[in-house]
Specification:
The protein is α+β, with helices and mostly antiparallel strands. The chain contains eight helices and eight strands, in the order αβαββββαββαβαααα. It has a domain at 47-172: Alpha-Beta Plaits. Bound molecules: iron/sulfur cluster (2 copies).
Length: 220
Protein backbone atom coordinates (compact mmCIF):
# COMPACT_ATOMS: atom_id res chain seq x y z
CA UNK A 1 0.00 0.00 0.00
CA UNK A 2 1.28 3.48 -0.84
CA UNK A 3 2.42 5.39 2.26
CA UNK A 4 3.04 2.31 4.47
CA UNK A 5 6.72 3.22 4.83
CA UNK A 6 5.84 6.76 5.96
CA UNK A 7 3.37 5.44 8.53
CA UNK A 8 5.93 2.95 9.88
CA UNK A 9 8.53 5.73 10.16
CA UNK A 10 6.06 7.98 12.01
CA UNK A 11 5.21 5.12 14.37
CA UNK A 12 8.92 4.72 15.25
CA UNK A 13 9.24 8.49 15.82
CA UNK A 14 6.11 8.56 18.00
CA UNK A 15 7.28 5.53 20.01
CA UNK A 16 10.65 7.15 20.70
CA UNK A 17 9.11 10.59 21.43
CA UNK A 18 6.66 9.25 24.02
CA UNK A 19 9.09 6.60 25.26
CA UNK A 20 11.82 9.21 25.91
CA UNK A 21 9.72 10.51 28.83
CA UNK A 22 9.95 7.07 30.48
CA UNK A 23 13.19 5.43 29.20
CA UNK A 24 16.49 7.36 29.26
CA UNK A 25 17.95 5.13 26.50
CA UNK A 26 15.45 6.61 24.02
CA UNK A 27 16.89 10.11 24.54
CA UNK A 28 19.41 10.42 21.75
CA UNK A 29 20.42 14.04 22.45
CA UNK A 30 23.43 14.46 24.73
CA UNK A 31 23.88 17.80 26.50
CA UNK A 32 27.55 18.18 25.51
CA UNK A 33 29.86 19.34 27.09
CA UNK A 34 28.08 18.79 30.42
CA UNK A 35 27.24 15.23 29.36
CA UNK A 36 29.58 12.96 27.44
CA UNK A 37 29.13 9.55 25.85
CA UNK A 38 32.01 7.24 26.82
CA UNK A 39 34.24 6.69 23.79
CA UNK A 40 34.69 3.12 22.55
CA UNK A 41 37.97 1.28 23.25
CA UNK A 42 39.13 1.55 19.63
CA UNK A 43 38.38 5.24 19.16
CA UNK A 44 41.54 7.07 18.05
CA UNK A 45 42.57 10.62 17.36
CA UNK A 46 46.25 11.67 17.33
CA UNK A 47 49.41 9.83 18.42
CA UNK A 48 51.04 10.09 21.85
CA UNK A 49 54.37 8.78 23.19
CA UNK A 50 54.21 6.35 26.12
CA UNK A 51 56.60 6.42 29.07
CA UNK A 52 57.01 4.13 32.09
CA UNK A 53 57.27 5.95 35.45
CA UNK A 54 59.50 8.84 34.31
CA UNK A 55 58.68 11.13 31.35
CA UNK A 56 62.37 11.54 30.51
CA UNK A 57 64.12 8.29 31.47
CA UNK A 58 61.08 6.08 30.92
CA UNK A 59 60.19 7.16 27.38
CA UNK A 60 59.91 3.94 25.37
CA UNK A 61 60.85 5.56 22.06
CA UNK A 62 64.39 4.74 20.93
CA UNK A 63 64.38 7.20 18.00
CA UNK A 64 64.62 4.43 15.40
CA UNK A 65 62.69 6.75 13.03
CA UNK A 66 60.61 3.94 11.48
CA UNK A 67 57.39 5.86 12.18
CA UNK A 68 58.87 9.02 10.67
CA UNK A 69 59.70 7.13 7.45
CA UNK A 70 56.32 5.35 7.27
CA UNK A 71 54.02 8.29 8.10
CA UNK A 72 52.12 8.95 4.83
CA UNK A 73 51.78 12.77 5.16
CA UNK A 74 55.29 13.04 6.74
CA UNK A 75 54.10 14.92 9.81
CA UNK A 76 56.57 13.32 12.29
CA UNK A 77 59.95 14.96 12.87
CA UNK A 78 62.61 13.20 15.00
CA UNK A 79 66.19 14.05 15.96
CA UNK A 80 68.05 11.11 17.55
CA UNK A 81 70.15 11.68 20.71
CA UNK A 82 73.96 11.43 20.67
CA UNK A 83 74.12 9.44 23.94
CA UNK A 84 72.19 6.38 25.18
CA UNK A 85 69.98 5.61 28.20
CA UNK A 86 68.76 2.22 29.53
CA UNK A 87 65.37 1.08 28.17
CA UNK A 88 62.71 -0.88 30.15
CA UNK A 89 64.91 -4.00 29.97
CA UNK A 90 68.04 -2.13 31.07
CA UNK A 91 69.53 -2.19 27.57
CA UNK A 92 71.24 1.09 26.54
CA UNK A 93 69.21 2.76 23.79
CA UNK A 94 69.13 6.06 21.93
CA UNK A 95 66.21 8.39 22.68
CA UNK A 96 64.57 11.23 20.71
CA UNK A 97 66.22 14.58 21.37
CA UNK A 98 63.36 16.09 19.35
CA UNK A 99 60.03 14.39 18.57
CA UNK A 100 57.37 16.60 16.96
CA UNK A 101 54.06 15.70 15.34
CA UNK A 102 52.15 18.26 13.30
CA UNK A 103 48.57 17.31 14.14
CA UNK A 104 47.22 19.80 11.59
CA UNK A 105 48.60 17.38 8.98
CA UNK A 106 48.16 14.02 10.78
CA UNK A 107 45.33 11.98 9.31
CA UNK A 108 44.94 9.60 12.31
CA UNK A 109 45.77 6.57 10.17
CA UNK A 110 47.64 4.80 13.04
CA UNK A 111 50.39 3.53 10.70
CA UNK A 112 53.02 4.95 13.09
CA UNK A 113 51.54 2.76 15.86
CA UNK A 114 51.47 -0.34 13.68
CA UNK A 115 55.12 -0.06 12.63
CA UNK A 116 56.66 0.86 16.01
CA UNK A 117 58.59 -2.20 17.30
CA UNK A 118 58.86 -0.78 20.86
CA UNK A 119 55.17 -0.15 21.78
CA UNK A 120 56.27 3.47 22.16
CA UNK A 121 53.63 5.33 20.18
CA UNK A 122 49.87 4.91 20.63
CA UNK A 123 46.72 6.76 19.65
CA UNK A 124 45.12 9.26 22.02
CA UNK A 125 41.38 9.80 22.44
CA UNK A 126 41.50 13.52 23.22
CA UNK A 127 39.49 15.34 20.54
CA UNK A 128 39.06 18.75 22.19
CA UNK A 129 42.17 20.23 20.61
CA UNK A 130 40.85 23.28 18.76
CA UNK A 131 43.14 26.30 18.82
CA UNK A 132 42.82 29.86 17.52
CA UNK A 133 46.28 29.75 15.93
CA UNK A 134 46.47 27.64 12.81
CA UNK A 135 50.09 26.44 12.65
CA UNK A 136 52.50 26.49 15.60
CA UNK A 137 49.88 25.59 18.23
CA UNK A 138 49.12 22.36 16.41
CA UNK A 139 52.75 21.31 16.24
CA UNK A 140 53.00 19.08 19.32
CA UNK A 141 56.43 18.72 20.96
CA UNK A 142 57.85 15.68 22.79
CA UNK A 143 56.80 17.11 26.17
CA UNK A 144 53.15 17.50 25.07
CA UNK A 145 53.13 14.11 23.33
CA UNK A 146 54.55 12.19 26.32
CA UNK A 147 51.88 10.37 28.34
CA UNK A 148 52.24 7.83 31.14
CA UNK A 149 51.43 4.14 30.80
CA UNK A 150 48.69 4.71 33.42
CA UNK A 151 47.06 7.24 31.08
CA UNK A 152 47.30 4.69 28.25
CA UNK A 153 45.57 2.13 30.51
CA UNK A 154 42.76 4.63 31.22
CA UNK A 155 42.03 5.34 27.54
CA UNK A 156 42.63 1.85 26.03
CA UNK A 157 42.38 -0.64 28.96
CA UNK A 158 42.19 -3.86 26.92
CA UNK A 159 44.93 -2.92 24.43
CA UNK A 160 47.25 -1.59 27.19
CA UNK A 161 46.91 -4.80 29.22
CA UNK A 162 47.89 -6.86 26.14
CA UNK A 163 50.89 -4.60 25.48
CA UNK A 164 52.03 -4.89 29.11
CA UNK A 165 51.78 -8.69 28.92
CA UNK A 166 53.80 -8.76 25.68
CA UNK A 167 56.50 -6.51 27.15
CA UNK A 168 56.70 -8.62 30.32
CA UNK A 169 57.02 -11.77 28.19
CA UNK A 170 59.78 -10.18 26.06
CA UNK A 171 61.63 -9.03 29.21
CA UNK A 172 61.39 -12.55 30.73
CA UNK A 173 62.64 -14.15 27.49
CA UNK A 174 65.58 -11.70 27.32
CA UNK A 175 66.45 -12.41 30.97
CA UNK A 176 66.33 -16.19 30.39
CA UNK A 177 68.56 -15.81 27.30
CA UNK A 178 71.05 -13.72 29.31
CA UNK A 179 71.16 -16.36 32.07
CA UNK A 180 71.63 -19.18 29.53
CA UNK A 181 74.47 -17.27 27.83
CA UNK A 182 76.16 -16.64 31.22
CA UNK A 183 75.85 -20.34 32.15
CA UNK A 184 77.31 -21.42 28.78
CA UNK A 185 80.26 -19.03 29.18
CA UNK A 186 81.17 -20.49 32.63
CA UNK A 187 84.14 -23.00 32.38
CA UNK A 188 83.07 -26.60 33.25
CA UNK A 189 85.25 -28.22 35.99
CA UNK A 190 87.20 -31.24 34.64
CA UNK A 191 86.50 -34.46 36.61
CA UNK A 192 89.45 -36.90 36.53
CA UNK A 193 88.62 -40.28 35.01
CA UNK A 194 89.78 -42.99 37.44
CA UNK A 195 90.10 -45.62 34.69
CA UNK A 196 92.74 -43.57 32.83
CA UNK A 197 94.59 -42.00 35.81
CA UNK A 198 95.13 -45.09 37.98
CA UNK A 199 98.18 -47.27 37.49
CA UNK A 200 97.60 -50.84 36.34
CA UNK A 201 96.92 -53.11 39.26
CA UNK A 202 96.19 -50.25 41.68
CA UNK A 203 93.16 -50.48 44.00
CA UNK A 204 91.82 -46.91 43.59
CA UNK A 205 88.12 -46.28 44.27
CA UNK A 206 86.18 -44.45 41.51
CA UNK A 207 85.71 -40.78 42.52
CA UNK A 208 88.57 -40.85 45.06
CA UNK A 209 91.66 -38.60 44.66
CA UNK A 210 94.06 -40.33 42.29
CA UNK A 211 97.36 -41.50 43.88
CA UNK A 212 100.65 -39.83 42.94
CA UNK A 213 102.19 -41.44 39.88
CA UNK A 214 105.25 -43.69 40.35
CA UNK A 215 107.34 -41.55 37.93
CA UNK A 216 106.91 -38.39 40.12
CA UNK A 217 107.91 -40.33 43.31
CA UNK A 218 111.08 -41.67 41.71
CA UNK A 219 112.12 -38.13 40.54
CA UNK A 220 112.21 -36.83 44.16
S1 LIG B 1 48.58 8.63 12.63
FE1 LIG B 1 49.25 8.42 10.48
S2 LIG B 1 49.42 10.51 9.76
FE2 LIG B 1 49.32 10.63 11.99
S3 LIG B 1 51.45 10.65 12.66
FE3 LIG B 1 50.80 8.51 12.65
S4 LIG B 1 51.40 7.72 10.62
FE4 LIG B 1 51.43 9.96 10.51
S1 LIG C 1 57.92 5.91 18.17
FE1 LIG C 1 58.56 3.80 17.76
S2 LIG C 1 58.92 3.71 15.56
FE2 LIG C 1 58.86 5.88 16.11
S3 LIG C 1 60.98 6.42 16.47
FE3 LIG C 1 60.11 5.86 18.44
S4 LIG C 1 60.60 3.68 18.68
FE4 LIG C 1 60.87 4.18 16.51
Amino acid sequence: MIGTGILKGMAVTARNFVGSYFEKERLITVQYPEERIPLPENYRNFPILIYDNDPQAGLRCVACKICEKECPPQCIYIIKSDDKKPDYMGKPQFYPKVFDIDISVCMSCQICVEVCPFEAIKMDKDFELSKRERFDALLLRKEELSKSNEYYHRIHPVEAATVDANLAEAAAAAEAKKKAAAAAAKPTPVTPNPTTTSAPGSTSVPGATPPESSSSSTKS
